[in-house]
Amino acid sequence: MSENLARQFLLREDVVFLNHGSFGACPRPVFETYQRWQRELEAQPVEFLGRELTETMRVPRIALAAELGTTQENIVGLTNATLGLNIVAQSLDLKPGDQILTTDHEYSALEKTWAYVARRTGAEIVVVDIPLPLTSESQFTKAIIGGMTERTRVLFLSHITSPTALLFPIENAIAEARKRGIWSVIDGAHTPGHIPLALDELGADFYAGNCHKWMMTPKGSAFLHTRPSVQGMINPLVVSHGWTEHSKEPGAKGAFGNSPFIDELEMQGTRDPSAWLTVPAAIDFRRANGWSDVQAHCQALAQDTAHRLAQMTGLTPLSSAAFCAPQMVAMPIPDCDVDQLKLDLIERYNIEIPVFRWKDTCICRLSVQGYNSKPQMDLLIGALSELLDLKGAAAPRAASQG
Question: Any idea where the Aminotransferase class V domain is (predicted)?
Fold first, then answer.
């Protein structure tokens, strides 16, 4: 399976790429679709961007909405999840003394976003520590609800965490926030194409996700999902052709005939929308290659590799398998110079994988995608065994993308 799929990707064959979670990797057929859109744009830019773009942008919204359990009126195409979350964070009407409740597992760029918002508005950031290892939904929900107060206005959570690769069971926390009148803002950067999503059923007020990670579109393809009742709260970061002065009036239309939510965010000056337009092709690629079976295989490889390393290190995993991202696992390793270890892995073994320190824990974060293989997992285990002076692993041997 992995050998055939590896040939459908553009990754260098001399690099063992175990870092899909950072920026993704685009399959060759989807990338070719991307290039076709770019050529069409350049063949007649005025027609493409000036006369056809509104209808062209609607097609991926419809396709993606069907995958995400929503309707195309509730999502808007953007370049990345960080942009979507910035739009939300800077649209909320926060005042001095309001609290933004979040966890100690969030992505650093969004920590900075909320710090900026807090500085500008006078709101306070409250960080809840999630007990580890994470082994139950009630353990998570109790920690979140325990951090809520009468001053909590925003609940900001990752669905799948970036540093710790945990799958947070966010449903009950979102429901409790709704009961208390707290806006729920979800960072779903790692979720589309990684886990099944039913966004309308989930009920979060705002949910941003990337398509260029696990859905495997080219870079620069993402979405913001917003419940209809709060779409009027959203303001664009850039005011451009999609804005109208009457956009906040009941029943208002945007400048291009969609809702103000869509037109104000999608029509913001000249940009190349080709990555967003490949969303249907990426969905078709996954279906044609039986991606549910591919994902099951990848999950098994990821969990087996994490288990092997844990046996060697004696370190406790960050969660039970149920609360680990299916195709991504943050593996604790003994205390070390994480920058040097990362450099040694790429320079000595051609292994591209993130190694970093989170709080007091050194982590090697493994991503397993359809182009990866068991020999690559063996190479990683052997390399870590040698570099960290661990016992009980076979000597490392070469492996390629196949």
Answer: 27-354
Average pLDDT, the chain: 94
Structural domains of the chain, count: 2
Which of 284, 312, 336 is at the close of a domain? 284
Rounded average pLDDT over 278-292:
97
Q: Decide if pLDDT at 397 tops 60.
A: no
Please state the pTM of the whole predicted model.
Answer: 0.95
DSSP per residue over 254-309, as a string?
Answer: -TTSS-HHHHHHH-SSS---HHHHTHHHHHHHHHHTTHHHHHHHHHHHHHHHHHHH
Q: What is the number of other CB atoms lying within 10 angstroms of the CB of residue 201? A: 9
Same domain, 266 and 135: yes
Within this chain, do residues 35 and 184 fall inside the same structural domain, yes or no? yes
Q: What is the CATH number of the domain that holds 63?
A: 3.40.640.10
CA 357 to chain centre: 20
User: Which stretch of DSSP H or E encloses residue 81?
Assistant: helix 81-89
pLDDT given at position 3: 64
